[in-house]
Amino acid sequence: MVPIGAVTLWSVAAFLVARFAFDANGRPPLPTQSFLASGRGRVLDMGAGTGRSSLMVLEARPQTSVVALDLFAESYKQHFGSGQSGQERLLSNLKAAGLEHRAAIQTGDMRKLPFEGETFDAAVSAYAIDHLGRDGVTASLGEASRVLKPGGEFLLMVLTKDSWVTFSFGPLLHHRGTRTAAQWTTLLENAGFQVMEQGTRPATLYFLARKR
């Protein structure tokens, strides 16, 4: 009974966090209005998943275009289920919002982006880079810096290190370990960014950084 009770408690906690704190089925608002305050530009969504972060940018910044990139590999099916392909699911969500004309879908690995350097005005990554191990995180942040124009902005959103989030989401999302705000700041600075703003949302740490 004890193992069954523990699994039940974890399942309930994961559901409550996903539904009410993380709002997994909703469209998240921008955590900061300082991101891409000009309102225009070409934005890369690294690890776009089903398109929640792409929709977040497209709706908040109606003069932007977004390249939604994901590997759409086995880990995608583990997180979002089988059925439609990842590209089809993402396109369906963009069409449902009426925003497909401002978005392009790209299959690729954020640890080795398939783009020339200095081609994007901004980039965003929401709950994707923190799935990776240490080497993957370092590589992805370095790639974000490489493809951004000088002064380009990077909005990074990750799960917090709070114990209740780790308990609820760690097993569910197969994270390899969350990090503190100071650790993320150091990683961003080592990749060539200056952190302009950081803050929290439910279950989330966010960082607004600028390429130096």
State the separation between the terminal residues, measured CA to CA: 56 Å
Q: Give me the strand/helix succession.
A: HEHEHHEEHEHHEE
Q: CATH-wise, what's the superfamily?
A: Vaccinia Virus protein VP39
Our count of helices gives: 7
Mean pLDDT: 85
The CATH class name reads Alpha Beta
Strand order in the largest sheet: 3-2-1-4-5-7-6
Radius of gyration: 17 Å
- CATH level 3 topology: Rossmann fold
* pLDDT < 50 stretches: none
Q: Which CATH architecture?
A: 3-Layer(aba) Sandwich
Number of strands: 7
Structural notes for this entry:
It is globular, with a radius of gyration of 17 Å. The chain starts with a helix and ends with a strand. It has 212 residues and is an alpha/beta fold. Helix 2 links the parallel strand 1 and strand 2. Helices cover 39% and strands 26% of the residues. Helix 1 packs across helix 6. The protein has one domain: Rossmann fold. It has seven helices and seven strands, in the order αβαβααββαβααββ.
Describe the structure using short key phrases.
212 residues; alpha/beta; Rossmann fold; 7-stranded mixed beta sheet; 7 helices; 7 strands
